[in-house]
Amino acid sequence: MKLKIVSLPLISLLIFSSLFSCNKQEKYNKTKIAVFADNQLSTNSGGGTAYAEGFLKNHLRFCKENNVEVIVINGDLVNNAVNQYYVIYENALKEIYGSDDTLYPEFVYAMGNHEWYTDTSSELTDPKAISLFKKHARIDTKNLKRKSVAEVADQSADKISANFYKVINGIPFISVSGSGPNGLLSYTERDEIKSWLKEISNLPRVKNGCPIYVSYHYAIENLTYSFGQGSSSYSTTLDELLKDYPQVVLFSGDTHFAGANERTINQVNYTNINLGSSSYTRHVSRSACMDTYDEYYNLDSGHAGKDTMVGEVAEGYNKTPHIHLVEVDEEGNATYQRYFTNPTRQLGLTWNIPNKVNKEQFKYTNARFKDKTWANLMYNKDGLTWADDKQATYSKTSDKLIVKFDDVIDFNYCEHYQVTVTNDTSKIYNFISHYYKWESNPHTYNYEIRLSDLPDGNIKSITVIAFDFFDNPSLNSLSI
To answer: In angstroms, how far is CA 403 from the centroid of its own chain?
Structure first.
């Protein structure tokens, strides 16, 4: 047989082509991700969870209509560790997606505090709660890369940790459930997550700059809503593990703060997005914009001296089904949009995080606050305004001062109102607006202050100012 001699240039070309082929970057498609938390399914027909099943179905319809490929459930899907509550979830999936679960989206589900609670007490943990969670969490799929081998306190087989990570279309998703209903991570779990992060950093798509998604139910101390309101003291452990990974986007929940608020996203060492509840906004009387985490007592909850949230306004907090739609493009750039799904309505600004993001590129930081640029992005003005014909009035009863006034024009962008009463001295009273629910019509407030709370002396003036999500004061005020 006569051997064919191949020329040196041709050999060089073949070697170069082979090397190029080995190093060629893999192509990825756009990926749509939906994220929600705090649905709290139960058989309870009253209270904030009464709407939970319907809102879950709305979320799933939204996911199906938008061709979502990954659904991230960030804890408290169920109200207790009860199989019957998980069955509601399974039935909702079948109703929306059909009985063939091979056609379902991929799920990344992290335990919240309610997944640990028994059906009789929110103070105790069910020893088999983690097994019940894993039965419905769909952890073991083709995209699963690692499951935790960490064990919690009693070392029993039923309590093996549910932490895991998956890689879907080249994008990593870490689910952190921890070791109980408070976000605690054992030393073994910390070491494990630390090793996972190093491993994940070498994934081709991550090296090219795509996000690393982390699900953890609990608010992050000194980060969530910029000041860490409602956070778990145990969250500092995870925060420390993530601080050197600016490409991380950590989803947290638990607070039930309003997802409509622009403080939902905040960046320090990485990006944290605190998810609005899928059932109800609990902390309607707390301001996310106040670094003191002020409690305003706006609801009729034993603080009858300040009962401003009445009627339609008070009911609004029960109907806040938030969901986030994330789209990661072929290059790893990501957009984040927020919606209500009852009915479907987009909320606030669209957030954009580029691929290969670093801390110097962070723009969703505390520097946004008191910045008129962001106010103009949101509602095209330097600050909120009242119509020229609006006025405030006041009256007195035997024990209360009642200040009455209407919403500002752009009321859906008002985070809180501030009432200043001046006698011989001045005293400021803050209270939340109805920002947690997107409304079609403005409201009239009757803000009640106990006379015993007022500064001494006769009333000389009363001033009302509105503040937006970025702490910009209104451009005009109401004075009496």
So the answer is: 34
**pLDDT in 10s for each residue of the chain, 480 residues:** 444 444 545 544 444 444 444 444 577 899 999 999 999 999 876 666 778 999 999 999 999 999 999 999 999 999 999 999 999 999 999 999 999 999 999 999 999 999 998 765 554 455 678 889 999 999 999 999 999 987 655 555 556 678 999 999 999 999 999 988 889 998 999 999 999 999 999 999 999 999 999 999 999 988 888 777 677 888 999 999 999 999 999 999 998 888 888 989 999 999 999 998 898 776 555 565 555 444 444 333 333 333 344 444 444 556 778 999 999 999 999 999 999 987 888 999 999 999 999 999 999 999 999 999 999 999 999 999 999 999 999 998 888 888 999 999 999 999 888 899 998 899 888 777 766 667 788 888 888 787 888 888 888 999 999 999 999 999 999 999
As a whole number of angstroms, the distance between CA 37 and CA 259 comes to 11
Q: Judge whether 403 and 464 are in contact, CB under 8 Å.
A: yes
- CA 395, CA 352: separation in Å to the nearest integer? 48
* pTM more than 0.85: yes
3-state secondary structure the chain: CCCCCCCHHHHHHHHHHHHHHHHCCCCCCCEEEEEEECCCECCCCCCHHHHHHHHHHHHHHHHHHCCCCEEEECCCCECCCCHHHHHHHHHHHHHHHCCCHHHCCEEEECCCHHHCECCCCCCCECCCHHHHHHHHCCCCCCCEEEECCCECCCCCHHHECCCEEEEECCEEEEEECCCCCCCCCCHHHHHHHHHHHHHHHCCHHHHCCCCEEEEECCCECCCHHHCCCCCECCHHHHHHHHCCCCCEEEEECCCCCCCCCHHHEEECCCEEEECCECCCCCCCCECCCCCCCCECCCCCCCCHHHCCCCHHHHHHHHCCCEEEEEEECCCCCEEEEEEEECCEEEEEEEEEECCCCCHHHCCCCHHHCCCHHHHHHHHCCCCCCCCCCCCCEEEECCCEEEEEEECCCCHHHEEEEEEEEECCCEEEEEEECCCCCCCCCCCEEEEEEEHHHCCCCCCCEEEEEEEECCCCECCCCEEC
